Amino acid sequence: MSGLNQYLCLAAILFGIGVFGVFAKRNAIA
Question: How far apart are CA 15 and CA 22, in angstroms?
Fold first, then answer.
């Protein structure tokens, strides 16, 4: 169970970084 939680936490962090990166790029272009 802890392995699944660790995977979900890592996925959430990567997803957050990806969304933040796209948002930053859109702001830089706009």
Answer: 11
